[in-house]
Amino acid sequence: MALGKGDTCSVRGVAGMCVATQAALCKATARHRQLVLQLGGSADGPQLREERRRRSAEARELSAGLRSALLAGLRQAPASPEERRELERLWVLFLSALELFLQDLHRAHHLCQLFSAQGGGVAPLRTRLGGRGLPSCKGSRRGGGPVQPPAALRLEEEIEQVRATLAEMESRANIPLWTVEATQPAGTGSIAAPAAGAAQGGPCAGHCCRVL
Length: 212
Fold this sequence. Notes:
The protein is mostly helical. It has 6 helices and 4 strands; from the N terminus they run H-H-H-H-E-E-H-E-H-E. The strands form 2 sheets. A two-stranded antiparallel ribbon has the order 1-2. Strands 3-4 form a two-stranded antiparallel ribbon. Strand 1 (115-118) and strand 2 (121-124) form a beta hairpin. Helix 3 (46-75) packs antiparallel against helix 4 (81-114), helix 3 (46-75) packs parallel to helix 5 (150-172) and helix 4 (81-114) packs antiparallel against helix 5. The model is unreliable at 1-11, 125-145 and 189-209 (pLDDT under 50).
């Protein structure tokens, strides 16, 4: 989803800054995804969950900055038609990155509901069924619903923040998604390849699409 260092140097102005931020966002979301995939496993624990929270905060901070820069660049007169096309392409890539990030947050929320961090490890949460199939009073709110773990409540806030950013980008920038054409042949890589490349500082999906 990001561009390589050579591409960053070839694009100037607002578009150049957005390219660099997009690359940083790819790295942050890729690292966040790796942490999410470990939730509920043998490596899970308070330390991993705190690291996931920090990576999520980093990705959301980068998203806020990229959103502001892209919206400002798309509203003002571009220096050239090429810069305008580059900003539109980055806008589409940014939406794709946010959608993938949102999916990872939903997955983390689900896993944090299933596994509660206790002490130095994790344990499955109690269900509402007792030993004889009767509703258990433990782990229930006064209204009868299950108690949300603190981590799940924080994740709900993160999800709403990313969802609001997505909604704002889609409503304030009138760019048809069909104007972006894939240039990478089908079957040359998996969906996870761009994120993995970003995490290692290598080339990402910025090379495989262009604006018509």
